[in-house]
Amino acid sequence: MFLKFSRLFSLPFLFICTLTFHSLTIKASPTYLYHDCQNTNTATFSSNSSYKTNLNILLSSLESNSATVTNGFYDYKVGNQASNTVYGLFLCRGDVSSDTCKTCVTAARSDLNQNCSSAKVAITFYDLCLLRYSNEPVVSTPAFSPIYIVSNTSNITIERDKFIKLVGETMNRIKGEAARGTDKKFATKEAKFTDSDTLYTLAQCTPDLSTDDCNSCLLTCINALDNGRQGATTMLTSCNVRFEIYPFYNSTATIAPAPAPVALSPPTASTNTSAPPPTLESKAGDKGISTITLVAIVIPVAISATFLTILCFCFLTKRKENTAVAAFLTILCYCFFRNKKEYTAVLEDNSAVDGITNVQSLHYDLRTIETATNNFSIENKIGKGGFGDVYKGTLSNGQEVAVKRLSKASGQGEEQFKNEVLLVAKLQHRNLVRLLGFCLERKEKILIYEYVPNKSLDHILFGLALLKHVGYISPEYAMHGHFSVKSDVYSFGVLILEIISGHKNSHFQQSDRAEDLLSYAWKLWKKDVPLELVDETIRDSYPRNEVRRCIQIGLLCVQEDPDKRPTMASVVLMLNSFSVTLALPKKPAFFAPTRTRTELSFPIMGLESDKSTSKSMTISVNDVSITELHPR
């Protein structure tokens, strides 16, 4: 009897083990589809070229940002000359989590490194993302090649004409919805085909495209589809479409409502006042069980219980017919589970990371800011800087804030503005004024900081000397009023050299020749003894190669030519990765072997008001500018 039971039990048991294994290991992972490299004589580069160096920086930036962007899209460029500038972007499918997006972009980067190692122009397609780079700009212009088309091998055999018509109508509707999108040009739609069959469709464009360009791109994709198959996909460089007769996307993520309006009280890092991000996870404290976990547990247990019941019944009745029934039901359930596998795979855990991970949690509405600052009244104005005016404000809960109203002439894009806000908001230090949030409405770009009373803002951040000196101000801005993103890079470079040397640039005096800090650092670099710059109190307690690298980065940031200075994104990569090769720095700005002192008269901006007074001071050529209240 035992042997008979064993034979009866063996086949279902194997199926149960298989089902359990599958259900525990199902996970949404990117699938490689296709890549294209332009390996022509004019579209290749050598392994030791500056283009290769810039490409590595670009790909590293794209990969690192893939885990933080909120709309699954990011573009970037590296280079200061036409011959070595590289442009790139990635686009992740609109329903995947940030973790899945990063996994896909990482895989795509590896694929391009392996298959397009010397191509100046390349793209790779995965089912969940695409990654591309080029020696020409890649944003805001639709690209229609290369094209990737794949169709299901099975044809529609029932009411074929009706199905083809349904696909065409549904795709045309979803095309318009995706094109009208703002943050994500992504849409999904379902349509009933028969009582038991549903059509699932998806359309997506890169968010940089205009509505018309997205419509045009998607129309090209739709026209290339084989509507008579049970499923098909068309992918262009700037857009893609897909339809299937089974769920292949996370419908919960695609229909998530917009975040709720922010309340009048200020948001903080620990209190997210916007609607929570879409998630399939139910949390109780820190012990949450996601849907994918439930699927992994419940399905094997339920199926196991079903089969054990059948087996017991067969054993007790000793009827051979029931053995066949058990085997049949086993196979039937396995087939059913297999058909649902892809749908289960997209049920991801989208729970947010603790802290600030969503830029919307930092958003203030413009009306709140106008009320807090008395509609940006002159009485509330406490300073003016190169970026715009600064106002003191009081929120509805009584909290005082410093509101910086950025100049409308700024060329910074909205997405870049949001990304920088999210990055700065995560920085917490007792010597840094905390960023509370931002406002981006009606062409206004506004930053909201904590208000530091009793003049401590300037004392903590810079010291009173900075109110009269320009050690941190880029020379092109101080002398000509030219400001760009590279102006901040200059300031950051000065800070690096100050931290390493233990001296302020504005108060540095190494010898009778009164060299400034930048000139002194440059001389030591040229003599190949840069470590002599290091503060004596820490000279024997640091990794020499790391400090030398930091000095080199600082000198790169303060180069005289703004175009030769790296971007802040590149600086972050340089500081975080030793695999990034650093360029040799050029002469710093205001490099003066024999500096003379000059009497200059210029206005000093006070902290309490925007009224200026003319004062005469004995200063160096590197000390000619105005520093106003500039909270950060």
TrEMBL record:
Annotated Gene3D superfamilies: Gnk2 domain, C-X8-C-X2-C motif, Phosphorylase Kinase, domain 1, Transferase(Phosphotransferase) domain 1
Pfam family, one: PK_Tyr_Ser-Thr
Signal peptide range in chain numbering: 1-28
Domain named Protein kinase: residues: 376-632
Molecular-function GO terms, alphabetical: ATP binding; protein serine/threonine kinase activity
Residues the record lists as binding ATP: K404
Keywords noted in UniProt: ATP-binding, Glycoprotein, Kinase, Membrane, Nucleotide-binding, Receptor, Repeat, Serine/threonine-protein kinase, Signal, Transferase, Transmembrane, Transmembrane helix
Keyword Mitochondrion included in the entry's annotation: no
InterPro entries membership: GNK2, GNK2_sf, Kinase-like_dom_sf, Prot_kinase_dom, Protein_kinase_ATP_BS, Ser-Thr/Tyr_kinase_cat_dom
Residues in Gnk2-homologous domain copies: 33-138, 144-248
Membrane topology type: Single-pass membrane protein
Main location: membrane
Subcellular location: Membrane
An annotated GO cellular component: plasma membrane
Membrane-spanning ranges: 292-316
Name of the protein this chain belongs to: Gnk2-homologous domain
UniProt organism field: Dillenia turbinata
